[in-house]
Amino acid sequence: MLSSLPNLLTLSRIVAVPLLVALMWGDGQWEWLAAFVVYTVAGVTDYFDGYLARANGTVSKIGIFLDPIADKIMVAAVIVMLVDSGIVHGLAVVAALIILLREIIVSGLREYLATLQVSLPVSALAKWKTAFQMIALGALVLAGSADTLLPWLPALAIGMACLWIAAGLTLVTGYDYLRVGLKHMA
Predict the structure, then answer these.
(1) pLDDT at 48 over 70
(2) Phi/psi at 87 (nearest 5 deg)?
(3) Are 75 and 137 in contact (CB under 8 A)?
(4) Quick one: 5-185 is in which CATH superfamily?
(5) What is the separation, in whole angstroms, between the first and last Cα of the chain?
(6) Nearest to 14 by CA among 48, 50, 46, 53
(7) Is the CB of residue 177 less than 8 Å from the CB of residue 103?
(8) What's the pTM?
(9) Can you give the C-alpha Rg of the chain in angstroms?
(10) What would the pLDDT profile of 130-164 be if each residue is shown by its tens digit?
């Protein structure tokens, strides 16, 4: 069922990551603006792949497997490139690390719990975390071109504020997931 529309949208997100990284590696303002467009389109596919799968009754095991991987690949790649470019620097790297580490820990926890046939449902707070995280990363990618192309837009300030909010929510939701997971490990 890899060829269903939801799964193709998920795969497109994975395929878009090398293009996103290549654009963010560039020094040009237009490259960063193009990276923002690619990131935004990829983010929209993240919403629609799940929505379409549920609405059309085409939820598949491969989709359930690939969707979180696609999300984590994109988030990790964007964070690494934002740090590499210097847009995220200094103390803000701590916020980025909190997000990355939580993604790794929760992925490992989900994998372990799957062997016990225990699912770890996404909480409402985790959805808010994801929303702030996606806005933060998008704004920070846009900040790579905003100084010259959109000088009136405070993309960097918005991105940094949302990054710290996402990091705070990441700590809370990560703790919640870990607490639930540890009950099954005892």
Answers:
(1) yes
(2) -65, -45
(3) yes
(4) CDP-alcohol phosphotransferase transmembrane (TM) domain (1.20.120.1760)
(5) 37
(6) 46
(7) no
(8) 0.90
(9) 17
(10) 999 999 999 999 999 877 777 888 999 999 999 99
CB 1 within 8 A of CB 43: no
DSSP string over the chain:
-TTSHHHHHHHHHHHHHHHHHHHHHS--HHHHHHHHHHHHHHHHHHHHHHHHHHHTT---HHHHHHHHHHHHHHHHHHHHHHHHHTSS-TTHHHHHHHHHHHHHHHHHHHHHHHHTT---PPPHHHHHHHHHHHHHHHHHHHHHHHHHH-TT--HHHHHHHHHHHHHHHHHHHHHHHHHHHHHHH-
The answer to whether 74 and 24 are in contact (CB under 8 A) is no
The domain segmentation of the chain, as residue ranges, is 5-185
The encoded tokens of residue 163 equal 């990054």
Place of tokens 């929510």: 169
| Statement: residue 175 has pLDDT above 70 | yes
Q: Which two tokens stand for residue 97?
A: 């690390």
Please report the sign of the dihedral spanned by the C-alpha atoms of residue 97, residue 132, residue 159, residue 68.
positive
